[in-house]
Amino acid sequence: MLIGGHVSTSGGLVKAWERAAEMGCEAMQIFNQSPRMWRPTQYKDKDIAEFRARMADGPIRSVVIHAVYLINAASKDPEIREKSLTSLAHALRVGDAIGADGVVFHPGSTVGESHEEALERVGDAIRHVLGESERCPLLLEDTAGAGNTLGRDFDELATLLELGGKDKRLGVCLDCCHLYASGYDIGTADKLEAVVDEAIEKLGKRRIQCLHVNDSQTPLGSNRDRHALLPNGELGTRGLSAFLSEPRFEKLPALLEGGEGQGANAQQVQLAKDLRKKGLAARKRRAKN
Questions:
Q1: Where are the beta strands (DSSP E) in 16-155?
Q2: Beta bridge partners of 149
Q3: Does domain 2-288 bear CATH number 3.20.20.150?
Q4: pTM of the full predicted structure?
Q5: % helix / strand / coil in the chain, to the nearest 5?
Q6: Residue 263's CB: how many other CB atoms inside 10 A?
Q7: Which of 93, 102, 156, 212 fits a disulfide with 137 by CB distance 3.0 to 4.6 angstroms?
């Protein structure tokens, strides 16, 4: 498992890499542009080349892009839809350029429209943006299930993969806070095992390509997306240790995003590594009994 966090790109891609390295990251996540603005960032070729050179030398072995929050691929509003598809396609092209392991995006919201039609619009959007880029995977993030958001369970994610054409570049990013808030009890290793079994059955193991590691301020099934710092929330030490040591998550980027008004930092990244060690030790003890 490659543990890391989300870092700012202020000052460019190389500055982002330096921040991640200073935090002790093995993986990093960035926004390809300001998360609350439609205007795309045009990275210079020199910055991209230097970034790729840094990535090739380690110690950071994975970079993931998070698409901007404004995107709603389910919207039927022509202006919002055009801007959403343009932004998402741009994120994938940046991913192509920097060698990213994926662009994570929230599938969107029905905004009170027909649920089935909204899912179909997301499927159309997925096929379109994949056609506008070459290599970078597109990863649907599971949601906490608030309001009319899409992607709140494995069945809905499976439907979106189907409607997106089952392209080999399509995958899923699982957020442990969102899983818990949407009703999946992952509070212990045994309960997590059953949830991962279901995810693999419905999505396929190959589709799970990225993890977001956030504790939850709200209880199981709350349908509220409220991140807590590790391990201050409902998942706590036990749940997070289990998540970070799940054998089928090996080699995946596991990215902290922060919570309680604070972003990921070196202390939180080290804490995640320590929680992983605790989880691995606990699994080893159980295997002997």
A1: 27-31, 62-66, 103-105, 138-141
A2: 109
A3: yes
A4: 0.96
A5: 45, 15, 40
A6: 13
A7: 102
Task: Report the alpha-carbon distance of residue 168 to residue 146 in Å, rounded.
Answer: 29
Query: Quick check: helix, strand or coil at residue 58?
Result: coil
Question: Could you tell me which residues are beta bridge partners of residue 29?
Answer: 6, 64
175 phi, psi to nearest 5 deg: -105, 120
- For the record, the structure tokens of 178 come out as 């969102």
Instruction: Report d(CA 255, CA 2) in Å as an integer.
Output: 8
Instruction: Note whether 241 and 279 are within 8 A (CB).
Output: yes
75 Cβ contact partners less than 8 Å away, ≥ 6 residues apart:
81, 84, 108, 109, 111, 121
pLDDT tens, residue by residue, 187-204 = 999 999 999 999 999 999
236-245: per-residue pLDDT in tens?
999 999 999 9
β-bridge partners, 262: 259
- Structural domain boundaries of the chain? 2-288
